[in-house]
Amino acid sequence: MPADQFTLESGADHLADYLFYKHAIRHQFCKTCGTEAFALGTSPNGDMRAINLRCVPSIDIDTLTITKVDGASF
């Protein structure tokens, strides 16, 4: 989602920042349980946030329509 539509309301002090391979995306992990809550990155459209919806209490994962993407075919 666009970064300007994302607000972290609490818990920033419980997050650890991690950068994989090319250091293009800042992954935010919980220091206690190790879950990746979200990530910060940039797309051609600007700053973005990728959110682990399992960390959003109001989301029922079972009600979502999942569209699988075959990244190798792009």
UniProtKB/TrEMBL annotation:
Gene3D superfamilies reported for this sequence: 2.170.150.70
GO molecular function: carbon-sulfur lyase activity; metal ion binding
Highest taxon, organism lineage: Bacteria
Record keywords: Metal-binding, Zinc
Record-annotated CENP-V/GFA domain positions: 1-74
InterPro entries cross-referenced by the UniProt entry: CENP-V-like, CENP-V/GFA, Mss4-like_sf
Family to which the UniProt record says this protein belongs: Belongs to the Gfa family.
Name used for this protein in its record: Glutathione-dependent formaldehyde-activating,GFA
Organism of provenance: Sphingobium indicum BiD32
Species lineage: Bacteria, Pseudomonadati, Pseudomonadota, Alphaproteobacteria, Sphingomonadales
